[in-house]
Amino acid sequence: MTNKEDKIVVVGAGLMGTGIAHAFASSGFATLLVDTHAESLTRAKGNIENILSTGVKLGKITDEVAQSSLANLITCGDLSEAALGANWLVETVSEQLAVKKSVLGQAAPLLAPNAIIATNTSALSVTEIAASVPDFADRVVGMHFFNPVHKMKLVELVRGLATTDEVVVRTKALCDAIGKTSITVNESPGLTTSRMSALLGNEAMYMLQEGTATAEDIDTALRMGFNHPMGPLELGDLTGWDTRLSVLRYLHQTLGEKFRPCPLIIKMVAAGRLGRKTGHGVYRYEDGNRVPGSGLKASAL
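^ 3-hydroxyacyl-CoA dehydrogenase, sequence as received from the core. Prediction below:
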């Protein structure tokens, strides 16, 4: 069902795009990572090199596999050039409907016949995104990866109104080829995971705002009491509170009052405290590492 000669284009060299490009390239696919910002491409390639070198040091992969993976990866600043004749397009740009529609509108006519167009949206409507390319809407599918991609095994495959069974089968086979476990979701705001995660993270922020417990203790409760790999506030810092706020606003609009964003999230985003990517969210970060005891306290609100 899959062909390692397929050309896969990943659009957006942010955190998710970097991880997705690594997943394809390290699985033997010719992968083009596209971004209009040269510095984002440079940073992404460096991060992929670090993931591979760490894998070599830990004995998870050989140096030959690491070098082969890097050879499969090409970076490009021109979407039209990259999309020409590609068999797959995976967009992972910002969670803004207009931006995603623009990417699909530019790329879709240039792809190979029967190419599949995947959107990595975590909450937006696949049907609405696909409507921007009506001639190709049946080949648009949601392909929601999880961060960090090289560690997280799940991919949510999301059927839009026009998505065909064949496209779902082919995309599931692609997930199998890169070592991911996929589930199929009929389109719904927030899918399965984003809907639950947004609600959990929002409630954690309400508890922090109310002074119910410290940030560290809220996160410890979820890690130790429910065996979560990280707490909801740590996860929000990793995802980015601007992204979390965008998702919550969409879910609030579509699913109702229980998803109303906590005022503390709105305040943090307004202050530029977005999480790891800015060095300061609920916690502070130095050189990518969390500063012990730096969690936001209710007394500071």
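The radius of gyration is 19 Å.
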